[in-house]
Request: fold
Amino acid sequence: MRLAADYIHPFRSVSGLSSRCRIRVYVPEEESDAPVVICSELPNNPGPSITNSVESIAAQVIRGHHLEIPVWIEHHPKEATVTGKESFELVIFSDYEVREVVRHRGPRLEIGQPTGGLSTVVV
Reply:
């Protein structure tokens, strides 16, 4: 795997509030492997958490980087949590088709709903 992108990604919640997160995109050396995206909550995020907007953030990143079904990891550094414990969660979506949907605050990109994933807490 090689790091292809590392940046602060602005996004809007369903209610239209501005937020931001850190995105790291890793692309595989082997074609048979999947790309990996680590989406990190920022301690100074001014809006809703990444958990509440993950299907929209993922759609934007998948389209923007032309990714095929990535492994999506939601990362909460200890500075961004109430418990002070860092965590990583594998997020699996019901589908990875990027589509434009219209919500009460206007159009936005989304993919399928997140389903239960595997969670690891780092002490």
